[in-house]
């Protein structure tokens, strides 16, 4: 089987015209797609660990969520992510193609935020919303119980919230999930709908100030929530191309709470 048979299928399933303008999804590294497919690795990011797995199983296609090459040139990429150059050179030597599906996957109806609520067993509580990226659920629980559910399901250790401790055992029901780093404009729009809790990642200081002033209740979880992409991609490829050798690599949170 040629490499292009798998990549064409995935690009038709998650078309690049759905990605945001700033997002360099697509091929971060590309060779002749007519070459025979040897095996595939799926992961959230291309790290040394993921590359080593590709070498181990003789993979020539790596499917990731976050683009490996974000900058216009590899020289620019070196400045922000110097570890990538070595992996890039080794991928060239081994002719390993690297294909990313980022916001074009996020913006699918069954995209990243949906996969998160599905993993939490909340997909049947999903509410209609004008955009696919945020997933809104109507599910009665408490903040404490929801945090426990997320920690148990995903194994996350680091979380932050601006919800006062006195409210942690109060009932909540209107909950929004914005996978990865949710856009502040989207968070503000959902807050205007009087949601009890908005869950997202990578919140910067100025955004915390906005959420404080606008009384938006926030739970910040690890960006690793988007690892559900790798799980979904692995499952889809496995089912569509049952004869293909494929491995799934899970990455751990690269930090500790102190």
Automatic annotation (TrEMBL):
The family classification in the record reads: Belongs to the GTP cyclohydrolase I type 2/NIF3 family.
Is Methyltransferase a UniProt keyword of this protein?
Answer: no
Q: Which residues bind a divalent metal cation?
A: 65-66, 106, 223, 226
Keyword terms: Metal-binding
Q: Which InterPro entries match?
A: DUF34/NIF3, DUF34/NIF3_sf
Q: Keyword Metal-binding: yes or no?
A: yes
Official protein name in the record:
GTP cyclohydrolase 1 type 2 homolog
């Amino acid at each position: 089987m040629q490499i292009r048979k798998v990549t064409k299928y995935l690009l038709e399933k998650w078309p690049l015209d759905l990605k945001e303008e700033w997002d360099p999804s697509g091929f971060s590294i590309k060779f002749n797609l007519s070459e025979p497919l040897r095996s595939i690795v799926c992961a959230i990011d291309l790290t040394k660990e993921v590359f080593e797995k590709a070498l181990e199983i003789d993979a020539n296609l790596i499917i990731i969520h976050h683009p490996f090459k974000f900058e216009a040139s590899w020289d620019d990429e070196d400045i922000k992510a110097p570890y990538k150059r070595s992996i890039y050179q080794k991928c060239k030597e081994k002719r390993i193609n690297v294909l990313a599906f980022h916001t074009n996957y996020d913006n699918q109806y069954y995209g990243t935020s949906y996969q998160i609520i599905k993993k939490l067993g909340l997909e049947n509580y999903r509410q209609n919303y004008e955009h696919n990226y945020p997933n809104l659920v109507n599910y009665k629980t408490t903040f404490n119980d929801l945090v426990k559910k997320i920690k148990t399901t995903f194994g996350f250790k680091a979380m932050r919230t601006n919800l006062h401790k006195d409210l942690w055992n109060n009932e909540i029901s209107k909950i929004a999930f914005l996978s990865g780093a949710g856009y502040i404009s989207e968070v503000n729009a959902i807050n205007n709908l009087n949601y009890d809790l908005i869950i997202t990642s990578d919140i910067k200081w100025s955004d915390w100030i906005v959420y404080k002033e606008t009384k938006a209740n926030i739970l910040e979880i690890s960006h690793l929530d988007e690892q559900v992409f790798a799980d979904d991609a692995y499952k889809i490829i496995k089912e569509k191309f049952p004869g293909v050798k494929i491995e799934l690599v899970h990455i751990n949170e690269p930090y500790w709470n102190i």
